[in-house]
Amino acid sequence: MIQTILQQAIAQAGGLLPFHQFMQQALYHPQHGYYMTQRPRLGRQGDFVTAPEMTSLFGELLTLHCIELWQHLGQPARFQIVEAGAGSGKLAADICRTARRFPAFQTALEYTILEISPDFQNLQRQTLTEAGCDPAGVHWYDTQDALGENSIVGILLSNEFFDAFPVHWLEMTNEGLRELGVAWSEEGLTTRLMPLTPPLDPDYFTRLGIVLPVGMRTEVGLAASTWMAQAARSLARGMILTIDYGYTQEEYYSTALPQGTLTGFYQHQKIENPLHHPGEMDLTAHVQFTALAQAGEANGLTTLGYTTQAWFLLGLGLLQRMEMLHRSLPEADYQRVNQTVLRLIMPQGMGDRFKVLAQGKGLADLPLAGFSLNNRRQKLVR
């Protein structure tokens, strides 16, 4: 069915559909998009796994970060955690459970989930219930527009959220910058070069001081920057915390990534052709963190921290928590936890590939534990 929908969209576009529109349909078509249908996406039966599914320590440490922020804000009586794209709900459940150890913080806590997928919303309610967290105490919205301007006092956080935003797919040719579009042929879906679609223009990279070599392909995530700008306007006081795999602008558009980062994941297999398995495959592109930071700063945020996931978790006390577990768990159980934690922090695992960006509003430039060991925010400025 999704094939028919895509054929119709291509025909309506005059035979060539800009890739970002194809990606929007493949992932988010209301009935047939990858994230909108009822299917296993996470874990062994799905296509990918995220840090909260790997260990509850991830959510426990993020709770400590939230408590630190609550204290910096003067311990307001109402502290909001807004989680964007909450997946299975595991992170929300771990935060809600950990908050019980801190009664004053738990009393102030109000949890909201922004989730476009009805299937994920149902899974999140189930996960919270199984964890002993009452879903009735959580608010769900399926659109960012539900958040009014200057409405949040607290934190808007996300983990592996922006990587699933549609991107413009570009190639530098001898004739200049071109966009890749999707066409339909007898062999099925195929890509072709096409003129740039607004608001992109031929001088986009020139204004950034970037020269792309002929033949290089890359992506521009305009939708992610637009979302961040609106999120910044919804924050009254507090922080936007973004955890995802990605690069700074200088890294993203270097010759080290001659074909960009656009990738598909299907049954835990990396698929190079993003046109394969439309509606059945996760499509993802790495996050361009400089652009996200700039979108936030243009809308009133201050960049407080940028570091790797490894340094962030270590700054929040991961090693101290592991020492406590070593004393309390049987050796076999501890080793299982240790192996999982190593995947989160080792450079060859998720430790360096995932980055953490903190942007604040109404906050003094105070030291934050998660960025105390290796704050790299200066790298966001080219």
How many angstroms does the end-to-end distance come to?
45 Å
Give me the Rg, rounded.
21 Å
Order of helices and strands: HEHHHEHHEHEEEEEHEHEHEEEEHEHHHE
Summarize the amount of helix as a percent range: 25-40%
Mean pLDDT, all residues: 93
What does this structure look like?
The structure is a single chain. With 382 residues, the chain is an alpha/beta fold. It has one domain (51-166, 221-380): Rossmann fold. It has 14 helices and 16 strands. It has helices at residues 2-12, 19-28, 51-54, 57-72, 90-99, 103-108, 118-130, 204-207, 222-234, 249-252, 289-297, 309-315, 318-328, 331-345; strands at 17-18, 79-84, 109-114, 138-141, 152-159, 168-173, 176-185, 188-194, 217-220, 235-247, 263-266, 269-271, 282-284, 287-288, 302-308, 354-361. The strands form three sheets. Strands 2, 3, 4, 5, 10, 14, 15 and 16 form an eight-stranded mixed β-sheet that branches. Strand 3 (109-114), helix 7 and strand 4 (138-141) form a beta-alpha-beta unit. It is globular, with a radius of gyration of 21 Å.
Which descriptors would you attach to this protein?
382 residues; alpha/beta; five-stranded antiparallel sheet; 35% helix; 14 helices; 24% strand; Rossmann fold
Task: Give me the secondary-structure topology.
Layout: H1 2-12, E1 17-18, H2 19-28, H3 51-54, H4 57-72, E2 79-84, H5 90-99, H6 103-108, E3 109-114, H7 118-130, E4 138-141, E5 152-159, E6 168-173, E7 176-185, E8 188-194, H8 204-207, E9 217-220, H9 222-234, E10 235-247, H10 249-252, E11 263-266, E12 269-271, E13 282-284, E14 287-288, H11 289-297, E15 302-308, H12 309-315, H13 318-328, H14 331-345, E16 354-361
Parallel strand pairs: 2-3, 2-5, 3-4, 5-10, 10-14
Antiparallel strand pairs: 1-7, 6-7, 6-9, 7-8, 10-16, 11-12, 11-13, 15-16
